[in-house]
């Protein structure tokens, strides 16, 4: 298990980041830089595919971007003025090189490379059907069904075949595709995962987050709209709306945790929204204390917001070491425990005898919260109050985020009082779903048709979950068969 965030063995994980550029001399080098800025969205593997006007070139590897593209000749071999790239933490499909994106296929019309952020929630069903019709899959990735759907579409042009493919899939997809004709950037009709567009000189860029544009010196133009397909080619740029319009449901968790705080997501500064969530948390759940202490690093902006709203001083009560290699973090419970202690230390001289408000972004399994509270107590804190900058995470995500199965989510098993008892804090409180919506700039949450995907808090999924439902049905059937055998 590879980790970069502190305390992140107990976080939801964004699965992927994508980056594409059309029209730059050193396209692959720009993509590598962009992927560096998106590393937090996937640390397990990275890949780049370029096109030089005649041929496609690919390099994919497991591990971080730096390790995969650190040799000069790797980037030099990825020639051409157009390239797309991908960072990945596995969602569907085993962790194997054949699943590392961009995926590539040679159609009769030419090469086609695809990088996908999201998850196709009916991929298994489509795959079974395609298998029956003779398709042979090269990977276990959900993204590959899109390639086969494009290949088998009866439409004439590649653009129409691509649209036809997208219309058959459910779930979340922000896609950047490279063909010999041009680059396609497409966001699913609900816009679950982000995708932005920028400009670098004459070149056009698409990326999961604006921070990737900043890093390469590009200008942010706008978000790719939910349901929008943008085509960039030597003939220029065109925007298409091939899907029936629906109310967008972008993932609200991008604001809470996934996106970098220096990014703009759907027009809002992530940093500002996180501070607003902290302020809402303080208004909804006040408590008298000496210091507001963030759980580093992801709890910092919300803790600043909490401190500013409450008037209680913000202090760094936990210091994070930036020099702990990820090799320390192994998936066994024993070493996980070691990892937390190596990476974080309580600032004891500050904490001793004080009443502390700890601010974190979320509680997933609860194991980390338990350790941090204990760390504060060991350092002599008189009281430890935990405040969480998201509502309780009660449901799994099926849209490209790594969540444990529902049974392992603490909030799916316990109410807040029981959770408080479990993590052994003096008090525990979460921002309400209404408070979260206010923080992202909505007056109120529309109960019937929420403005965001917030399913991991509410269970109101914005799409059908075909594979999950069928899997559940099979499980239920097996259970019944076993019972009556
Ligand atoms: Fe985001 Fe949660 Fe919806 Fe997944 S279920 S897309 S993490 S809000």
Helix and strand topology:
Layout: E1 13-14, E2 16-22, H1 27-37, E3 45-51, E4 56-62, H2 65-68, H3 72-77, E5 82-88, E6 103-107, E7 110-120, H4 123-132, H5 144-152, H6 158-168, E8 171-179, E9 182-187, E10 196-200, E11 203-207, H7 210-215, E12 219-223, E13 229-233, E14 236-240, H8 253-258, E15 264-265, E16 268-269, H9 270-284, E17 291-294, H10 300-310, E18 318-320, H11 333-343, E19 344-346, H12 348-351, E20 355-360, H13 367-378, E21 383-388, E22 401-402, H14 410-413, H15 416-423, E23 427-430, H16 433-439, H17 455-458, H18 466-483
Iron/sulfur cluster binds at residues 192, 251-253, 397, 399, 401, 453-456.
Describe the structure.
The protein is an alpha+beta fold. The chain is 32% helix and 24% strand. The protein has a seven-stranded antiparallel β-sheet with strand order 4-3-5-2-11-10-12. β15 (264-265) and β16 form a beta hairpin. α5 (144-152) crosses α6, α9 (270-284) crosses α10 and α9 runs antiparallel to α16 (433-439). The radius of gyration is 23 Å and the shape is globular. The protein starts with 12 loop residues before the first strand and ends with a helix.
